[in-house]
Amino acid sequence: MNLSRRHYLVPLAPLLLTGCQAAEHSPTVDVLGSYFPAWIVCILLGLALTIITRHIFIILKLHSHLRPVLLVYLCLMICYTHIIWLLFFRN
Predict the structure, then answer these.
(1) In a domain, 7, yes or no
(2) What's the total number of domains in the chain?
(3) Residue 73 phi/psi, 5° resolution?
(4) pLDDT tens, 25-80?
(5) Is 42 among the domain residues?
(6) How confident is the model at residue 90 (pLDDT cuts 50, 70, 90)?
(7) How far is CA 91 from CA 5, 15, 20, 72, 79, in A?
(8) In terms of residue numbers, what domain contains 71?
(9) Of 20, 35, 82, 89, which is most buried with the most CB atoms under 10 A?
(10) pLDDT of residue 81
(11) What are phi and psi for residue 61, nearest 5 degrees?
(12) Residue 63 resides in a domain
């Protein structure tokens, strides 16, 4: 990267670092006496909801109309994960 390109990245630094604020605590979930980060639980629940949605799409014969399939299900999982996070773990 030459010097002129680095010059454009300097104004973006505060924007990119806004998510790095210190929180009072990190949300954790107690599972059988072990504490897991809440984001792991959200991802697993998002994956489970995506699999259930896939089966519903297959039953309704909508699965064959989804293109590109990998991108559709990845976006669906990300949406479910964020919705679960916002519903249960927002501060």
Answers:
(1) no
(2) 1
(3) -70, -30
(4) 667 777 777 787 888 889 999 999 999 999 999 999 998 898 899 999 999 999 99
(5) yes
(6) confident
(7) 38, 21, 16, 29, 19
(8) 29-91
(9) 89
(10) 94
(11) 60, 35
(12) yes
Q: Is the pLDDT of residue 21 over 80?
A: no
- Does pTM top 0.85 for this prediction? no
Contacts 24+ apart (CB under 8 A), 39-46: 39/85, 41/84, 42/81, 42/82, 42/84, 42/85, 42/88, 42/89, 43/81, 45/80, 45/81, 45/84, 46/77, 46/78, 46/79, 46/80, 46/81, 46/84
Distance of CA 7 to CAs 10, 11, 15, 34, 42, Å?
6, 8, 15, 47, 38
C-alpha dihedral, 39 to 45 to 50 to 55, nearest 10° = 170
Q: 5 by DSSP, 3-state: which?
A: helix
